[in-house]
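Good morning,

Attaching, inline, the backbone tokens for the sequence recovery test we're adding to the shared suite. The designed sequence is right after.
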């Protein structure tokens, strides 16, 4: 019997090959209704939103190319066969734009800086580059719905937009919100800790208690959820700055941690250590 072990191991590896070859094989695209003809879509990567109009489907973010067939199938199911017309990218990260080309929309809209950064990435498919860009705001319409794209100053990256579905009181935050978890602030692509916090405050001052808030990652939430996220950032930044003021080194601050209050915000991508190291790079307060 022991001599069978290598063969058993080979069999297990052989049976695992399909899953290893396609990590998206078991991903399901799920739709959560937000309003009439408006949905939040989840799968793998950044949360999407889809608006079905009388002429087309408008999709916010694209997840991964390997999921394009599943995404298009879900859009067809929700829209009674309408085609994806407009794809909007909230920013330039792969889990939001990798599927651009594979989804084959008629047009792709993003902020100017997204086009600049994706163009500089020679590995990014040219057919997935934004075909239309803007600098501050851009409004689309369909089925009596105004879809307003609004650029926010550098925060998660230097090309983030949020998407307002004005009549339905829904906002898609892109990666300006990681619901219930530490956020990723991409300092190498124009991100800013204080800018991120300021942008969340801006949104909090605009929305009300009935606003449905679609995060870039995590569960659908509301104003109270966005307030909890804001408080987490403010309090953890203050804690790190207090430790710095005491003269503790970066290593000592990481070792001390953030305390039990924030343990549940730790996740596999942005651990407590990585979040502290991000906070340590926050810009100094200017007078």
């Amino acid at each position: 019997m022991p001599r069978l072990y290598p063969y058993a191991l080979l069999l297990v590896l052989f049976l695992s090959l399909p899953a290893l070859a396609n990590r998206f094989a078991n991903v399901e695209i799920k739709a959560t209704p937000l309003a009439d003809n408006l949905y939040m879509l989840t799968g793998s990567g950044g949360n999407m939103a889809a608006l079905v109009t009388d002429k087309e489907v408008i999709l916010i973010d694209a997840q991964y190319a390997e999921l394009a067939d599943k995404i298009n199938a879900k859009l067809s199911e929700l829209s009674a066969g309408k085609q994806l017309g407009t794809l909007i990218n909230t920013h330039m990260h792969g889990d939001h734009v990798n599927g651009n080309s594979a989804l084959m929309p008629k047009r792709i809209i993003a902020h100017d800086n997204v086009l600049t950064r994706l163009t500089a990435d020679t590995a990014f498919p040219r057919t997935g580059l934004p075909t239309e860009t803007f600098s501050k705001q851009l409004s689309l319409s369909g089925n009596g719905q105004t879809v307003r794209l609004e650029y926010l100053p550098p925060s998660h990256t230097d090309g983030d937009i949020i998407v307002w579905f004005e009549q339905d009181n829904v906002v898609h935050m892109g990666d300006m919100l990681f619901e219930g978890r530490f956020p990723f602030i991409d300092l190498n692509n124009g991100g800013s800790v204080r800018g991120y916090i300021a942008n969340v405050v801006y949104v909090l001052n605009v929305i009300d208690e009935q606003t449905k808030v679609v995060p870039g990652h995590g569960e659908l939430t509301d104003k109270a959820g966005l307030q909890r996220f804001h408080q987490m950032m403010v309090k953890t930044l203050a804690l790190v700055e207090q430790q710095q003021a005491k003269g503790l080194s970066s290593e000592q601050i990481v070792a001390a941690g953030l305390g039990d209050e924030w343990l549940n915000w730790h996740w596999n991508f942005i651990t407590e250590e990585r979040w502290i190291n991000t906070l340590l790079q926050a810009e100094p307060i200017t007078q």
